[in-house]
């Protein structure tokens, strides 16, 4: 069976105030064309179809267009909700859509109920594990402590139990939206840390033939059978070195697989430039970036006049301007930045408590702070302060 694996469309999201709807539409067209020309048997979309729980109308219309085009193509599609999606909203009409070959899996309780697709050699069971917010699903999965590993392990127990009762030789694919240990994050994913832990080990998914992951925006291979497709478009300058692709996966009769990266359309190159303003304006080696989306970090000791206007004269698509003046090592600003570098919200908060009262929080107070951060992350309203 040939499977096209994609995720993290984030329909409705802008890139530094640049409307990406046209680029997202071009990607949908590329997806449909690839599915037709490469004779794909199934498309899987591993969450974050939308960028927010209540997407703009234009994003909903684009999603509707994608569903119609995939249904018209006659290629079955399996989708799960991600941490940016509203599972309830995305899942509306799932029963009717399933009759058209578009299978939405947004209910955590249905993790062990697969979509069964058949090829010339037998059945392939597709299990959809939507994003599992630990605090919201721990009771449904019967786990005592809310944590990503615990709820995903419980969901996978249901998958393996169902698979064990199916005919011998049934192959299996799991769609999941999670941060798996070994994956490389970027700055554009929403933090999902719970209890100080964000990632789960890849071993949680043992026992299935292919795991189609979503959440991290860089395409990457954790093991031969566990892969992120990454987002088809960039959503932060931290993705400047990403090659945006989808995975084309072939599952043979015995569950062996081969995988090929299919490049996605690039609306515009990303460039992160650093130096003094005069150097950036004069360096001939930067000619290649004059049509790129640019993030410029200026290292001038004194902030120059009209830096954005002067930059856009050469780089008209400059979207981000950062000031990082070169300073002496003993400069107070430098030492403060170093103290914050790489520190979590929890650590910064604990340092603040220690600063204002002369002693850090005790174990109970650390728990209160951790619970508070977990609550606002679950609400989707905070990102890592240290970023």
Automatic annotation (TrEMBL):
Q: Which residues form the Nuclease SbcCD subunit D C-terminal domain?
A: 267-355
- Lineage top rank: taxon: Bacteria
Q: Extract the GO molecular function terms from the UniProt entry.
A: exonuclease activity
Every Calcineurin-like phosphoesterase domain range: 1-218
Read off the SUPFAM superfamilies from this record: Metallo-dependent phosphatases (SSF56300)
Task: Quote the InterPro entries the UniProt record gives.
Answer: Calcineurin-like_PHP (IPR004843), DNA_Repair-Maintenance_Comp (IPR050535), Metallo-depent_PP-like (IPR029052), Mre11_N (IPR041796), SbcD (IPR004593), SbcD_C (IPR026843)
Q: Which controlled-vocabulary keywords does the entry list?
A: DNA recombination, DNA replication, Endonuclease, Exonuclease, Hydrolase, Nuclease
The family annotation for this protein states: Belongs to the SbcD family.
How does this protein assemble?
Answer: Heterodimer of SbcC and SbcD.
Briefly state the protein's biological role.
SbcCD cleaves DNA hairpin structures. These structures can inhibit DNA replication and are intermediates in certain DNA recombination reactions. The complex acts as a 3'->5' double strand exonuclease that can open hairpins. It also has a 5' single-strand endonuclease activity.
Entry's NCBIfam families? sbcd
**Protein name in UniProt:** Nuclease SbcCD subunit D
Output the lineage of the source organism: Bacteria, Bacillati, Actinomycetota, Actinomycetes, Kitasatosporales
Q: Which gene encodes it?
A: sbcD
């Amino acid at each position: 069976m040939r499977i096209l694996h994609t995720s993290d469309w984030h329909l409705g999201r802008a890139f530094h105030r640049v409307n990406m709807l046209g680029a997202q539409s071009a990607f949908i067209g590329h997806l449909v064309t690839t599915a037709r020309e490469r004779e794909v048997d199934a498309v899987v979309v591993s969450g974050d179809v939308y960028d927010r729980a209540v997407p703009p109308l234009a994003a909903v219309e684009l999603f509707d267009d994608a569903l119609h085009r995939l249904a018209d193509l006659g290629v079955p599609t399996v989708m799960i909700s991600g941490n940016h999606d509203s599972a309830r909203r995305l899942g509306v009409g799932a029963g009717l859509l399933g009759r058209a070959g578009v299978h939405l899996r947004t209910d955590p309780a249905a993790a062990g109920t697969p979509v069964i697709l058949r090829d010339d050699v037998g059945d392939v069971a597709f299990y959809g594990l939507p994003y599992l917010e630990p605090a919201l699903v721990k009771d449904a999965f019967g786990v005592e402590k809310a944590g990503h590993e615990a709820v995903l392990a419980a969901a996978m127990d249901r998958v393996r139990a169902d698979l064990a009762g199916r005919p011998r030789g049934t192959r299996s694919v799991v769609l999941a939206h999670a941060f798996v240990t070994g994956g490389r994050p970027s700055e554009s994913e929403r933090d999902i840390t719970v209890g100080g832990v964000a990632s789960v080990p890849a071993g949680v998914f043992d026992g299935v033939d292919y795991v189609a992951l979503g959440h991290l925006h860089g395409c990457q291979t954790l093991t031969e059978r566990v892969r992120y497709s990454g987002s088809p478009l960039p959503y932060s300058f931290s993705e400047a070195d990403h090659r945006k692709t989808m995975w084309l996966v072939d599952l043979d009769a015995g569950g062996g697989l081969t995988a090929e990266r299919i490049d996605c359309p690039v609306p515009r190159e990303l460039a992160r430039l650093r130096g003094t303003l005069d150097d950036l304006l004069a360096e001939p080696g930067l000619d290649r970036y004059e049509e790129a989306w640019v993030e410029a970090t200026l290292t001038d000791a004194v902030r120059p006049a009209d830096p954005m206007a002067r930059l856009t004269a050469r780089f008209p698509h400059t979207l981000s301007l950062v000031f990082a003046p070169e300073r002496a090592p003993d400069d107070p600003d430098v030492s403060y930045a170093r103290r914050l570098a790489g520190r979590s919200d929890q650590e910064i908060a604990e340092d603040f408590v220690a600063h204002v009262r002369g002693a850090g929080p005790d174990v109970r107070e650390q728990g209160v702070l951790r619970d508070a951060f977990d609550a606002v992350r679950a609400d989707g309203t905070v990102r890592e302060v240290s970023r």
